[in-house]
Each structure stands twice: as structure tokens, then as C-alpha cells.
Amino acid sequence: MRNRTKILLLAALTLALTALVVGTVGYWYYKPTIVTIAVGPETAPEHRFARKLAEVLAHNHASIRLELLVNEAGSQNLSRFAQHEADLVVVRTDERRIPPSARAIAILEEEVVLLITPPKSKFRSLADMERRHVVVVGRDGRNEAFVRRLLEQYKHDPKLIDIRTVPPRAPLDQLLAPGGGADLAVIVEPLSRLSGADDFQELAQKLKGFGVHAIGDAKALERKLPGLYAETLEAGLLVGSPRIPDEELETVALQRVLVARAKMPDTQVVELMHALFESGRQLAVEQNFATRIEPPSTEKGALIAVHPGADQYVASEVKTFFDRYSDLLYVGLSVAGILGSGAAALYGAVFRSAPVHAGRRAQALMELRDRARTSRSKGELDTVEAELEAVLDEVLGGLADGTISPRGLDAFRLAYDSAREALNTARRNQPTT
Fold first, then answer.
1. Interatomic CA distance for residues 136 and 166, integer angstroms
2. How many C-beta atoms lie closer than 10 Å to residue 284's C-beta?
3. Structure pTM?
4. What is the spatial distance between Cα 351 and Cα 331, in angstroms, rounded to a whole number?
5. Which of 235, 255, 236 is CA-nearest to residue 196?
6. From start to end of 305-400, where are the E strands?
7. pLDDT of 43-82, one tens digit each?
8. Could you give all domains of the chain from N- to C-terminal order, each with its CATH number?
């Protein structure tokens, strides 16, 4: 009688626990939390990105739903975020007043600065800007404000430089043609759309070629201006034949970063990270925006501090509700069907030692990524590469012999790709001897 009583109590406890879990899941499904994001008008890329993200979250039955707070002017987005009206916003790193409560979730896009002149122009660098007529392509005045801030570093007399903003569809071939009124066009363009963009091919045909000029002191500007980053443009990136630019050149870039309020719960950020990095292709906006979403910088002193939820997701230290209790759900349902002596064995299986999750090794990869970015010699890069491959071999071997679980493998892959890209970039930037 005593054993039978224990079995019945065990079965009853299992059924009660199963009902509780199913009820909680049902509540989460039917009562999702609303998270708001401030966006510009429907034509703005961040608006279309946010709409796609909202659709992905709904399709995945996530515990959160995304609600768009639409503003007619993009400059209002950050204000609504700063006033706690929105939980999320996409910021550009040249913003002068990024709220201290902002925490980075993901880098959505990198935008590079292009200095374009007609053929045979005598323009050479940003130090050669005085008495030039400059057009800055932009939907609003933010690009022009950024260019003026950039020129402040060269101690120009602003009265000797004519700068004006033109809309994205302005005919640059006419503006840069003789008598067109412009000596130089400045374009802040998403890096993801530069390769093979038809408008650059058309511009080259109409102007019979054009020049793209380097910003040779890009690394110095990166150190001087927070939110500005040095970037290398590959030869032939804009036009394949004839190649424009004709060789690799240095320029500067800005980043578009998705940020959340610091007090936003980690669990909600994890849901967003799942959607961002596991449905990335669905979120890209016509090869113009969010085509290569990257994790935020975890370095100390970063322009925007990383949100703890994003940091933990990359390192695979945070589990969702289902990650935590999927085994328990499985055991509970099995015991409810058996209602016998197999219940004790199934419960024992819950508490047996689990293999190490692959995602736990992501933190080591992120540290190697940061070391690659700060390495100064080929020997240091070789050491980083050897350690990177050692971590990869360890995880592959562990997956084969069962000592490492595939859980968190997506986070591991993301961290490995990020570390490998940082290593390759560091090797490309090594001085040739």
C-alpha cells in the first residue's frame, strides 16, 4: 500500500505540475507583453525593418509583440525614447545626445561615407574643402550636420565652404557636371547595398567615370569622434568595369544600432535576439538595411553599453522558459501516461548531469574577437587564430562524443563568425612590408 500511495502521489504531482506549466504557457501565448519601438514614416528603412520584426515575433508566437510608434520626422524617434514613450529605437552613432539609459541590442547596419567628384577633379581630401561647393545627400539635415562636425576637425573657416543638402533622388550627374553647381557630393550609404548598385553604374556612364576619394586619416578621426569608425572599401566595390574605386581606400563609417531601455527585462531582450539572429533574412529591407545584423560591441568603454540580455544571449548564459523546463515538461507528460513504476526513473533522468552547452563556449570566442581587434602584430594574430581553431575543434569533438550539447549552437556560430571576421579584418589592416 505504501508504494502504491507513493506512485499515486507522484502521478498526481506530475499532473498538477503539467497543468501549471501548460496554463502558464497558454497565458503567455494569449497575453503577450507589448513592446514599443519609435520609427519614422513608412518610407524610412527602420520603419519597414520594425514592421518585419513585428511580423516575425507574431509568427513565432513569442511572448512579446512589437508595436510601432510612428513619427513624421526621424529626429523625433530618439526624443520619444528619451521620454520613456518607447522601449526601443534605432540610433545612428553620430547622434550627439544618445540617452544614458540606452543599451545596445544589435548592430543593424553600417553606413560608409563616400566622397564623390567628377572625373579630373582637383579635389584630394577633406583638408582641401575650402572654397568648394558641396552637396550632401540626405532625407533630412542629419547627414549635413555630420559632415560639418567632421570638417570641424580640419579647422576650416565654415564661411569658405558652401554645403547644402539634396534629397536621395537628386540628379548627381547634373549637379557634378560642369556648371552644375557642385564640386563634391558626400553620400552616407549603407555598406550592404554598395556592391553592384545600379545608380553608381548609371552615374559612371553619365559622367564618363567619377572619383571616390579616401579619408586617409580615418583611424585618427575614429579616435577623435565617438561613434565614427574606420572602414576599408574594396577596389571595384561601386563599379566593376572600369573599377571604381580603382584600389582599396580608407573611409569612415557610422553604425545604426537597435537599442533598448536599460530596465527592459532580459527575457524580452532574449526574445528579440532570437528573432533578430534566427530570422535574419526575413528582416532585411531590399538589400538596403539590416542585411547583415551583428551583435553589439561588448568592449569596455563602447559608445553604447550592451544590454545584459543581449550579452547573455551571445554567451548563451540565459535560457528561455522552454529551455529551462522542456525536460521537466517531457517527464511530466510521460509520467502522466505511464502512472506506474517508470515515473521514478523518468524523474531521475531530469536530474542527471547534462552535457556542456555549445553556447557556453561563445564567451571565449567573444574574448578572442576583442583580442583580434586590439592585436598589433602578425604573431599576436597567429596566436588568436590558433586559439580560435582550438575552441572550434573542442566543440566539434564534444558534439561528436556527446560531452557537448548542441543547445546554444546558433549563439556559438554567431560568436565564431564574429571572431573570424574580426581576425580577417585585422589581417587586412596589417601594414605590408
1. 6
2. 18
3. 0.67
4. 11
5. 236
6. 356-357
7. 888 999 999 999 999 998 888 999 999 998 777 899 999 9
8. 31-107+257-315 (3.40.190.10), 111-255 (3.40.190.10), 321-428 (no CATH)
